[in-house]
Amino acid sequence: MIRPYYFKGDYLEVLDQRKLPFKEEYLKVKDEEEGARCIKEMVIRGAPAIGCFASFCFYLGVLRGREPERVYRTLINTRPTAINLKNSLDRMMRAYKEGRELLREAQRIEEEEIQRSERMAEVGAKLLPDRVRVLTHCNTGSLATLGLGTALGVIKKAKEMGKEVFVFVDETRPYLQGSRLTAWELEREGIEHRIIVDSLAGYLMAKGEVDVVIVGADRITPDYRVANKVGTYSLSVLAKFHKIPFYVVAPRSTFTREREIPLEERQEGEVKSCFGKEVAPKSSRAYNLSFDITPPSNITAIITEDGIIKTG
Ligand code: MRU
User: Which helix (H) or strand (E) holds 157?
Assistant: First the structure.
């Protein structure tokens, strides 16, 4: 199975996801400063993956003699929406305050995430019919988690269980997590798929070519509002209109007790260019809101490692 990073004792090797699917290149990360840069610049992304990665970065920062509060702040100020980052760092901070071994805590966070992936996949795959055409958004596989993945984990598990699975992969503008990363993972798994532009989803649903929509989540509030990659809300509206089940797959580490959801706004340049090539007038402004919020009324169910939450 692909891993987004490897812990090497006193440094990390992180797969540079910006280069995929063309190059498999690893960067060396020796402390929290370098780790924070990797998270901010999307070398590593995906809510559970950054949560796990940040816990090892926390350990490395403290190992290098930095003050834990400062290490915590450096890492938490990287990406605001994915709550897994805060949940993991809070655990590391608690371990520090209680005098527990930090490396052991980081390893525990990672092991738990791998187990959660496996259980969510099993719960979710059972819901799918034997022949199914799934539409998914962003990248929610091994690159975004540790283990099988969230939404993509369910898809992989369904295939493993012998179901006939076909996947429509939203390209996921502007960062192209779908066409670059999800398609790459599906290729490796031998799962039949086609990449589509995000705006084709609605028409495919209208033609009856989509049986189910499955996505991941970056943050789920107590009233089950789901923050996920921008475009998720539109998909949920389309699915509801066309009476297609809409599932969110997320581990408990993505849930929060807080009600507010900070939505990350990224640089305009990501929208105004495509892989280094400018695709808009220099003077035009862009609005690069990277996440949106889907209300529970648009969600058929949330699949977690310990069962199914019926929402809509
Ligand atoms: O900006 P990204 O690539 O970190 O966004 C990732 C997503 O939106 C995923 O759907 C989410 O993290 C949940 S699945 C691991």
Answer: helix 151-160
